[in-house]
């Protein structure tokens, strides 16, 4: 035990919601501890992302204590979420059954993976059930001390990530622990203990037993924590990326896909930069970059079989996303956006008539253009194409007409330089000529053929 005056954790660093839960449990006569990553981060001088609580109170007792603020969640192990405004405090009852024990409320697969685990125990048993020593630290609200049942504080000081118990058995119980080991090593800048590294090669194929939806969530945690590039390197080093994305991993070391590998690296770097700057990151964009090498290879193969480029790309997108099923299955809401980002890439090449205006008005234009920029940075497409679209976005009405004409001349073999454009200004809607209303008509003016006045006499392209 580390007494209050021997550590740097203060109640003032703990959120108001977590303190309410801790104090509420303590006043009701239960044990209450802040546990896991929040204690670890506070000891390291970092700001915790969230706060978890461990207690000897059972879930129904916790829910009764906090009433309308609490709800039960989970299947493998029932937890309680206590909500205060936008903050959710996760409360878990001490786990028991360490050492591979089973009873009527626990269930394991033939390979040892835990399927159900509603086994309650003591504080000491709960500590042994934690995955890493750095996460098995408990802040006691009763006397503000920190309890360490293993080598957690020592490992924090030495920058070492160590598994509690036998690593191979712990990976067998929950293969996702291998991904968590990589994530924490990348996030904390720690070295993964040699004993924790050794069994990964033998255990990594067990990730195939994990539900694909859970693998997707774990992948997001790996790549959206501000350390995507380092996580990617660790995943490849231990052969875990090959299990999650086999169709991509097989291509990354081939010289002909060097541009796709560079694109992926740039996407990961950009993701880290956005997370550090507090900007939003969409999983659809990240996964579009992750799967781009496989999509490109499959699309090229289909084109060689005689399929048109557009048809080949659409079929390749369907096949690549289908191939992810059973591994890291991408939810439909993200898969649809990924397809749009991919399929819009071909439309950036068509710059005649009204096509640039239609593409610019597309809801996914910004994401697709950012993806086009990544392709340019990787050397996959000429930088002049991105420059043209940058100027198109910034130009006023006349400037855009000039750019479209220049693109037409380039396509016919003439190559005019992009000269100075008219000063950028906010586009103003064209004034429509009013016509007197005829009997039986409303007040909206229209041409006899049903078209409006807003297109400069040009007819929109069919796509």
Describe, in plain words, how this protein is organized in 3D.
The protein is α+β, with helices and mostly antiparallel strands and 463 residues long. 46% of the residues lie in helices and 9% in strands. The protein is elongated, with a radius of gyration of 29 Å. The model is unreliable at 99-104, 416-429 and 438-463 (pLDDT under 50).
Which blocks of ≥5 consecutive residues have pLDDT under 50? 99-104, 416-429, 438-463
Radius of gyration: 29 Å
Biggest sheet character: 7 strands, mixed
Strand order of the largest sheet: 3-4-5-2-1-8-9
Our count of helices gives: 22
> Per the principal axes of the C-alpha atoms, what is the gross shape?
elongated
Structural class: alpha+beta
How widely separated are the two ends?
69 Å
Describe, in short, the structure shown.
This protein is α+β, with helices and mostly antiparallel strands and 463 residues long. It is built from 22 helices and 11 strands.
Secondary structure layout plus pairing:
Elements: H1 16-27, E1 32-35, H2 37-43, E2 52-55, H3 59-66, E3 70-73, E4 79-84, E5 87-93, E6 106-108, E7 114-117, H4 123-129, E8 137-140, E9 146-148, H5 152-158, E10 160-161, H6 167-173, H7 176-188, E11 191-192, H8 194-197, H9 200-203, H10 212-223, H11 228-237, H12 240-244, H13 246-249, H14 258-276, H15 283-290, H16 292-304, H17 309-324, H18 332-344, H19 355-360, H20 365-377, H21 383-394, H22 397-411
Parallel strand pairs: 2-5, 10-11
Antiparallel strand pairs: 1-2, 1-8, 3-4, 4-5, 6-7, 8-9
Helix pairs in contact: 7-10, 7-11, 15-18, 16-17, 17-18, 18-20, 20-21
């Amino acid at each position: 035990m580390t007494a209050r005056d021997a550590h740097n954790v203060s109640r003032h660093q703990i959120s108001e919601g977590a303190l309410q839960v801790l104090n509420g449990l303590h006043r009701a006569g239960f044990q209450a501890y802040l546990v896991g990553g929040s204690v670890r981060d506070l000891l390291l001088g970092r700001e915790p992302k969230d706060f978890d609580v461990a207690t000897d109170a059972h879930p129904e007792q916790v829910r009764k204590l906090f009433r309308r603020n609490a709800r039960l969640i989970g299947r493998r192990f029932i937890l309680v979420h206590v909500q205060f405004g936008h903050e959710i405090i996760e409360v878990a009852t001490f786990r028991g059954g360490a050492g591979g024990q089973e009873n009527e409320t626990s269930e394991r697969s033939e390979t040892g993976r835990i399927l159900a685990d509603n086994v309650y125990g003591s504080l000491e048993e709960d500590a042994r059930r934690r995955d890493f020593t750095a996460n098995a630290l408990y802040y006691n609200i009763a006397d503000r001390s920190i309890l360490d049942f293993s080598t957690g504080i020592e490992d924090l000081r030495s920058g070492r990530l160590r598994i509690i118990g036998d690593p191979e058995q712990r990976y067998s119980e929950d293969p996702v622990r291998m991904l968590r080991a990589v994530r924490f090593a990348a996030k904390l800048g720690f070295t993964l203990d040699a004993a924790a590294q050794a069994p990964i090669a033998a255990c990594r194929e067990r990730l195939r037993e994990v539900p694909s939806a859970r693998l997707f969530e774990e992948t997001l945690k790996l790549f959206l924590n501000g350390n995507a590039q380092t996580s990617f390197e660790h995943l490849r080093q231990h052969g875990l990326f090959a299990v999650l994305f086999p169709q991509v991993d097989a291509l990354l070391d081939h010289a002909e896909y060097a541009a796709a590998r560079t694109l992926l690296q740039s996407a990961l770097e950009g993701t880290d930069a956005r997370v550090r700057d507090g900007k939003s990151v969409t999983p659809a964009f990240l996964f579009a970059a992750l799967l781009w090498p496989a999509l490109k290879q499959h699309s090229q193969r289909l084109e060689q079989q005689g399929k048109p480029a557009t048809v080949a790309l659409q079929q390749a997108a369907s096949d690549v996303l289908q191939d992810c099923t059973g591994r890291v299955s991408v939810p439909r809401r993200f898969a649809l956006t990924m397809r749009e980002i991919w399929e819009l890439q071909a439309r950036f090449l068509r710059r005649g008539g009204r096509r640039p205006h239609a593409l610019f008005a597309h809801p996914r234009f910004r994401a697709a253009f950012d993806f086009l920029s990544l392709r340019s940075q990787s050397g996959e497409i000429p930088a002049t194409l991105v420059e043209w679209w940058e100027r198109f976005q910034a130009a006023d009405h006349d400037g855009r007409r000039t750019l479209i004409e220049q693109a037409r001349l380039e396509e016919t073999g003439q190559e005019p330089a992009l000269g100075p454009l008219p000063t950028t200004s906010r586009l103003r809607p064209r004034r429509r000529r009013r016509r007197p209303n005829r009997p039986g008509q409303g007040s909206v003016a229209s041409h006899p053929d049903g078209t409006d006045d807003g297109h400069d006499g040009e007819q929109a392209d069919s796509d």
